[in-house]
Design a protein that fits this description.
Structural class: mainly alpha
Largest sheet: none
CATH superfamily of the largest domain: Phosphate transport system protein phou homolog 2, domain 2
CATH topology of the largest domain: Methane Monooxygenase Hydroxylase, Chain G, domain 1
Number of strands: 0
Number of domains: 2
Shape: elongated
Distance between the termini: 57 Å
Number of helices: 15
Helix content: over 70%
CATH architecture of the largest domain: Up-down Bundle
Order of helices and strands: HHHHHHHHHHHHHHH
Length: about 375
């Protein structure tokens, strides 16, 4: 066993892991700063304006409301604020009547979690409500129940104001992720053409493995699009970007279908290479042409432009699929069918509806 080589690979994986973590920290830096600032402001408001001596729940509620994601912030503000108030009220009232102890904790946690579920709260927040009820029941003195509820609403109010202050990054990210997916689609199509041309089984299998890994890219795109839509809904300062973000959200479906059709195409290229079959040259040319169109679309996404300029090239390839040479093998027939499906997917990506895209594909 080559221990030195194993050590080198482990070191490289560790280096890449550190780099990925640092990039993740960089992307979350704004939200971390926003949470920290909101916590401090909530504490200051509760102490300076309301005269509360130890407003524990004000910064806690502010941080829980904001979190480290832009998604569903307005819902989180409502859930956390009301949930905290309910949890605090239940714990305060119960401990005033029955005191503190083990069985009191059992009852308070059960009632607080039940209340959170009735409020349709998320899984994480249900646990947070229970934790806050435990804090009230065990650590805090029995007086000041009303001020704690006020503190929860102060934290929620500060978070609501902070949630409207959003940088441009989450609005740029959907286009950046769309560019990544489309660029990877171009690489896969180009590699599929190369492996089919040379009947290279190893390259075809490697391309298929890479195509199967694109689910992560699609998940990132879906998350970025959802987050962008949430930002324009929650921030009045970003409403002008609504149509731009919505247009990117609309490409998630066509890109997902394009990747699925590409995986089917590449699987047939693997079979073709295993059988040492010859793929018709015009099929390979169309594959390269689609790869070029996908690459140009990726550039348009990255430049914040709609990719409709690629439509004439796609319509030209659609005409060529209608006049393509007859497939002499099952693999070639599948590849041709997937080429026509990919043209439809990319026409949708260019801004056409599915019906409009279908109507542009001539019959064979």
């Amino acid at each position: 066993m080559d221990l030195s080589g194993l050590g080198d690979r482990a070191f490289e994986r560790g280096r890449l892991s550190v780099s990925a973590r640092l990039r993740r920290l960089q992307t979350k830096a704004w939200m971390i700063g926003q949470c920290a600032l909101a916590a401090g402001v909530a504490w200051a408001v509760a102490t300076e304006l309301f005269g509360h001596t130890r407003p524990f729940f004000a910064p806690v509620a502010a941080v829980l409301c904001l979190g480290t994601s832009y998604g569903q912030r307005l819902r989180r503000v409502a859930e956390v604020t009301v949930g905290c108030a309910v949890g605090i009220g239940i714990a305060d009232g119960f401990t005033h009547l029955f005191g503190q102890g083990g069985w009191q904790i059992i009852v308070v946690v059960a009632v607080a979690m039940s209340a959170a579920i009735l409020l349709d709260a998320g899984v994480i927040f249900i646990g947070q409500v229970a934790v806050q009820a435990i804090v009230v029941t065990t650590l805090l003195p029995l007086d000041g129940g009303a001020s704690r509820i006020v503190d929860a609403f102060i934290g929620g109010g500060v978070a609501l104001v902070a949630a409207t202050l959003v940088p441009g990054a989450p609005l740029r990210r959907p286009r950046e992720e769309a560019a990544k997916v489309t660029r990877e689609l171009a690489r896969l199509l180009r590699s599929a053409s190369d492996s089919a041309q040379h009947a290279d089984l190893d390259q075809a299998a490697s391309t298929l493995d890479r195509a199967r890994e694109t689910e992560t890219l699609l998940d990132d795109l879906q998350a970025a699009a959802s987050e962008g839509l949430e930002v324009v809904r929650s921030s009045p300062f970003r409403r002008g970007s609504k149509e731009q973000v919505r247009s990117i959200a609309d490409v998630v479906g066509p890109l997902d279908r394009a990747m699925r059709n590409t995986r089917v195409l590449i699987r047939r290229v693997v079979v073709s290479a295993r059988l040492d079959e010859t793929m018709p040259p015009d099929y390979l040319e169309m594959l390269v042409g689609l790869a070029g169109v996908a690459a140009s679309m990726a550039d348009e996404f990255a430049a914040n432009h709609p990719p409709d300029a690629a439509r004439p090239a796609l319509l030209s390839i659609a005409e060529r699929t209608a006049d393509a040479s007859e497939p002499l093998t099952l693999s070639a027939a599948v590849v041709l069918g997937q080429l026509r499906s990919l043209v439809i997917d990319l026409l949708e990506l260019s801004g056409l509806t599915y019906s409009e895209a279908i109507a542009r594909i001539p019959a064979r």
